[in-house]
Amino acid sequence: MIQFERFTLENGLKVIVHRDTSTPMACVNILYNVGARDEDPEKTGFAHLFEHLMFGGSINIADYDNALQQAGGENNAFTNNDITNYYLTLPATNLEVAFWLESDRMLSLAFSDKSLEVQRSVVIEEYKQSYLNQPYGDVWIELPKLAYKVHPYQWPTIGKEIDHIKHAVMADVKAFFHKFYCPNNAILVVSGNVTVDQVKALSEKWFGPIPPGNPPMRKLPAEPKQTQSRRLELERDVPVDAIYKAYHMGGRMEQSFYAMELLADVLTDGNASRMYVELVKNKKLFSEINAFTLESFDPGLFIISGKLSEGVTLEAADEAIQEELKKVSLAQVSKEEIEKARNKTESSLIFAEMSILNKAMNLAMFELLGGAEENNKETEKFMKVSEVDLLVEASRVINENNCSTLYYRSKSKVNGNGN
Amino acid sequence: METEINLDRRTMPAFGKQTKIDIQHAQESKLANGIPVYSVNAGTQDVVKIELIFPAGARQQGLPLIADTTNAMLEEGTTKHNSEEIASLLDYYGSFLETSAHHDYASVALYTLGKHVSKVLPVLEEIVKEPSFSQSELDIYLTNKKQRFLVEDKKVRVVAARNFPALLFGDNHPYGHATKIEEYDTVKRDTLQSFHKTNYSANGCAIVVAGKVKDSVLNSLGDSFGGSNWKSADAQLNGKTFEVQPSAEKKHLIVKEKAMQSAIRMGRMLFVKSHADAIPFQILNVILGGYFGSRLMSNIREDKGYTYGISSGIVYLKEAGYFQVASEVGTDVCDKALVEIYKEMDKLCTEPVPDAELQLVKNYLRGNFLRSMDGPFALAERFKQVWLHGLDYSYYEKYVATLADITSAQLKDLAGKYFQKDSIYELVVGNKKA
Questions:
Q1: Cβ contact B91–A272 (<8 Å)
Q2: According to DSSP H, which parts of B226-354 are helical?
Q3: How far separated are the first and last CA of chain A, in Å rounded?
Q4: What are the residue boundaries of the structural domains of chain B, listed by start?
Q5: Residue of A60, A128, A350 with shortest CB distance to B9
Q6: What integer pLDDT is reported at residue B239 of this predicted model?
């Protein structure tokens, strides 16, 4: 349960304040309502590249990091398919420095050519480090492409291909900034050892004068219902075969999300989970297996991924997964299993509220998704999922015609000189 | 909209420097059998972390992988419950375990909501005192670990991290040994059992508790772990002394033909954490590669774009300490990156750190120090980070004082002492061509 207050500036900036006096620190989190789903299909990876450029100097402040570090602060940011989120923590006594820094880069960037040039290279190295030079790294490029044919979730946040990043030019950067980085497209959350009055005064002072923009209405094409099983096989230089199955499910605020999150726990979370016991321990078909949702805002994916034990074929592994899933849709998830999953979720939500940063991020995300108060309904929503709800949702989602399956084959195995 | 005539956006607002920082100390008590309990009662949430620490790390293990495997197998079944039943019991209360074996010690930690402590503590007691080391569970564990090893072996960063310490300590030293896949086949059940018997006992055990620590929590700890029935007669608490055998060659390359990036590790042996140079060197390290604005980040990422990230750090072990730089860079710019890293170290030896930069680092570190003490689990960590090295809270007082007093001249001398190019070991995993 997070207590908070909310107000909106004249220019449309929404501000949320959560006071926690048990810490000497303050956290400032700014969410911009733009993610990779808002990109031009021919210029993907831009929201993320842009996030890097936000640290390349703003109109009045040459070096964001330098100034923040002076004030004892630490910061970072992330971009995903849905949002771009910037956050910092610093001693609460230095709160105004954060307002000064964040408001200036919302007002305008410096648009330095050098920064664009360097960050293009940095992001290309990030692309290699996270996707291309990692075993199984390109799964997260290939699998979304298979599962989504229309919706922009079909490309990863880092971009479809390195060339899209290489070809980014300053005109794109400026257009992107003016389109999305305005007060009425942002949510500011301040948490920690602060007062509401203090945050109000600082918000008016630093953000109040920034003119509002005209952020576009988001009109993304809905992904049509998948009616046929999709399959892809890749052969790569990896030591063991792996399988990935992605099923379409509901969006973050739909009941589907809560049911499928619990189902993921029932299936693979911990030593007592179904698939772990059955497929890793008893049948020894997998060395590891994981079920999870991508937590995306628009209708997302429920994914099962597993690495196969030596000597097991992908076909047999696939069949075994389907068999376990069939048990779920045949009403065999017990009351106790769901109760365990719910209790685990309740407990992890309580642990998550130990940090002012987590609290600020969650308030910002829920504010965008329908209202920050939604954050405090999460536990209840999980607790309300019954065995029947889970069964109904699982039956709707778990279906080969709703699934994209990726067989990721080990090249060394194919050539017969494996292990 | 209002005009901003009166708003000066060019001048940084006034800020404080956190010169006085109070640290909440862990409170020491003892169980009836003498086990020390260090508790940090803090925070707003009704949660508790109970961590048991044993002298059961690599330094005590004798044979490879014994410390790791013993530690990991604790969750995999006891004389009363199998692996699934143990997990089920904890899941039901939303509690979870975190086990880890390190070079000098091993740890078993339980996280739980305060209201369930009395329900789940007996589970922690059971897995610590009565693990069964079932052969079939052990076989599954080892088989799957080998699979994971093969996958990890494809990551240049992992291979570099695994092999670098061997250059400093030698492969026979527990601090330097790089695990080989064949070693998983040498792990035997009875070795684990006897290691457990001698090293997971009341002798040498310590408990760190953090969160909402009520008296009832401490009483429950006494019930579970305060008895005299789990002392070991032949406890091997400190392990043997090992000879350090550094590599004769300074530069090493492990070729991964198809790599798109090379992982770089370079560094040198330092000293234990209680050494007089420890705190000043920590500050010097931050300037070089210990924060986002560091010399290495500014040059190699923010100026040249050779990498997504580069950092330097110090690893303090109980009997030694070492310094290392780590990065992954494009293979085509690997040589250039290496040149720049040496250049940055050399610059610290020859040119004093400018006042503005030193002031910035001091401010940053003071804020960071405050941040590192935020919340009960962080406070417990601060305690462990001195206690494990035989130090006490006066270390932090000394740290704050050094931060206030240290000068550019002292840092330059220190760099001259530790950053001489010919003292630096270098490991590249990947390749050095375009």
A1: yes
A2: 278-289, 295-296, 334-350
A3: 51
A4: 27-225, 251-430
A5: A60
A6: 66
Does residue A24 form part of some domain? yes
Interface of A with B in 59-118 (CB under 8 A): 59-61, 65-67, 69-75, 89-91, 93-94, 96-97, 99-100, 103-104, 107, 117-118
Q: Please, what are the averages of pLDDT over each run of 10 residues along chain A (419 residues)?
A: 96 97 95 97 95 95 96 96 98 97 96 94 92 93 97 97 94 94 98 97 98 96 97 96 98 96 94 96 97 98 97 98 89 83 90 93 98 96 91 94 98 54
pLDDT, tens only, A153-207: 999 999 999 999 999 999 999 999 999 999 999 999 999 999 999 999 999 999 9
The reported pLDDT for the residue numbered A419 is 36
Which two tokens mark A235?
Answer: 């052969």
Matching CATH number, B27-225, of 3.40.50.2300, 3.30.428.10, 3.30.70.141, 3.30.830.10 = 3.30.830.10
Q: What's the pLDDT at B16?
A: 86
A406, two tokens: 């990726």
pTM over 0.80: yes
Pairing of strands B96-101, B106-113: antiparallel
The whole domain housing A55 covers 5-206
Structure tokens at B207: 């408990």
Rounded to a whole number, what is the distance in Å from the CA of B291 to chain A's nearest CA? 9
A213 located within any domain: no
Q: Write out chain A residues lying below 8 Å of B18, CB-based.
A: 72, 91, 93
- For residues A408 and A285, state if they share a domain: yes
In a domain, residue A154? The reply is: yes
Preferred mutation among B294, B374, B379, B431 to probe A, highest tally of A CBs within 10 A: B374
CA dihedral over B195, B200, B203, B204, signed as positive or negative: positive
Q: Do B151 and A240 touch (CB under 8 A)?
A: yes
- A209–B304 CB contact, under 8 Å: no
Residues contacting residue A295 through CB under 8 Å, at least 6 positions apart:
A252, A257
Residue B238 has a pLDDT of: 66
Q: How many residues does chain B have?
A: 434
CA distance B361 to chain A (A): 7
- Is there a single domain that holds both residue A199 and residue A267? no
Chain B residues lying within 8 Å of A272, measured CB to CB: 84-88, 91
Chain B residues lying within 8 Å of A59, measured CB to CB: 9
- If one counts the domains in chain A, the total is 2
Residue A212 lies in a domain: no
CATH number at residue A96: 3.30.830.10
CA atoms within 13 A on the CB side of A58: 22
Stretches in chain B below the pLDDT threshold 70: 1-5, 19, 235-239, 433-434
Indicate yes or no: CB of A134 within 8 angstroms of CB of B155. yes
Q: Which CATH architecture is the domain B251-430 placed in?
A: 2-Layer Sandwich (3.30)
Cβ pair A117:B305 closer than 8 A: yes
Can B27-225 and B251-430 be said to share one CATH topology? yes
Residues of B in contact with A208 (CB under 8 A): 1-2
Rounded CA-CA distance B320/A33 in Å is 49
A289 and A393 belong to one structural domain: yes
Cα–Cα separations (whole angstroms), residue B242 to B59, B178, B234: 9, 16, 21
pLDDT tens digits for range B215-273:
999 999 999 999 988 988 776 666 678 999 999 999 999 999 889 999 999 999 999 99
Query: Do both A284 and A367 map to the same domain?
Result: yes
